[in-house]
């Protein structure tokens, strides 16, 4: 994650710019902006962005492009839905890039891997659970928050690994042995952090979580 500007060939960055521009345009177009007309929701959205800006600064790394940090994408998605989460996390990435943690030329590739992928994977898990399983509080928390966050982190790590290998930045054997296994540890941390945060919110501030409905998950349970 956090690819620098000089690690990959220019073709990868150009393709990333084109694809992310399409995704971001769709997110901006279809985001439920009216929700942010309410001052409390706007403050929560902006506060989440600021919190994740700080969270993304807590990172470690092995070599250029092989940095590791928590994402918070699943929590953001459950709180505001995928489109507002994509826009918000894009601002988080912009702040991280501005601070020098990543390059502007690689911005779109970083966004596709660290923003778009975990957000829509998390939302996909939510939609699958919503359709296939009973509407129950513990189902929502453990599958959407805990399991969804862990899956988002693991898939992000796998895609980042395959991308670096396909671009010839590092050998696949090296990445599989020295980089990818760390995402198992990150996944447990992401799951615990997201699960605890979402649990606290749906208990004490359910209005902060757009994908949670008291009538659906708590009444008559």
Number of strands: 2
Number of helical runs? 9
Cα shape: globular
CATH fold node name: Arp2/3 complex 21 kDa subunit ARPC3
Helix percent reads over 70%
Task: Tell me the β content.
Answer: under 5%
Along the chain, the helix and strand elements come as HHEEHHHHHHH
Would you tell me the overall average pLDDT? 94
Distance between the termini: 41 Å
**How many distinct folded domains?**
1
Structure description:
A hairpin with a 5-residue loop joins strand 1 (60-61) and strand 2 (67-68). Helix 3 (73-80) runs parallel beside helix 8 (182-204). With 221 residues, the chain is mostly helical. It has a single domain, classed as Arp2/3 complex 21 kDa subunit ARPC3 (Orthogonal Bundle), CATH 1.10.1760. Helices cover 70% and strands 2% of the residues. It has 9 helices and 2 strands. The protein has a two-stranded antiparallel sheet. It is globular, with a radius of gyration of 17 Å.
Q: How are the SSEs ordered, and which strands pair?
A:
Blueprint: H1 10-30, H2 39-57, E1 60-61, E2 67-68, H3 73-80, H4 82-98, H5 107-132, H6 137-166, H7 172-178, H8 182-204, H9 214-217
What are its keywords?
about 220 residues; mainly alpha; Arp2/3 complex 21 kDa subunit ARPC3; two-stranded antiparallel sheet; 9 helices; 2 strands; about 70% helix
In short, what is this structure?
The chain is built from 9 helices and 2 strands; from the N terminus they run H-H-E-E-H-H-H-H-H-H-H.
């Amino acid at each position: 994650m956090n690819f620098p500007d000089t690690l990959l060939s220019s073709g990868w960055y150009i393709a990333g710019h084109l694809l992310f521009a399409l995704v971001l345009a769709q997110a901006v177009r279809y985001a439920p902006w009216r929700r942010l007309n309410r001052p409390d929701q706007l403050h929560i959205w902006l506060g989440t962005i600021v919190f994740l800006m700080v969270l993304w600064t807590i990172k470690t790394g092995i070599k250029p492009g092989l940095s590791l940090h928590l994402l918070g994408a699943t929590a953001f998605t459950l709180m505001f839905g995928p489109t507002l989460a994509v826009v918000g996390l894009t601002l988080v990435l912009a702040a991280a890039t501005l601070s020098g943690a990543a390059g502007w030329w690689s911005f779109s590739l970083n966004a596709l891997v660290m923003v778009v992928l975990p957000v829509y994977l998390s939302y996909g898990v939510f939609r699958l659970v919503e359709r296939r399983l009973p509407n129950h509080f513990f189902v929502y928390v453990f599958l959407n928050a805990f399991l969804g966050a862990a899956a988002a982190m693991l898939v992000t790590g796998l895609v980042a690994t395959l991308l670096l290998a396909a671009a010839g930045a590092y050998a696949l054997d090296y990445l599989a042995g020295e980089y990818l296994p760390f995402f198992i540890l990150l996944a447990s941390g992401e799951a615990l952090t997201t699960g605890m945060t979402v649990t606290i919110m749906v208990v004490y501030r359910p209005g902060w979580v757009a994908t949670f409905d008291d009538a659906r998950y708590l009444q008559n349970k």
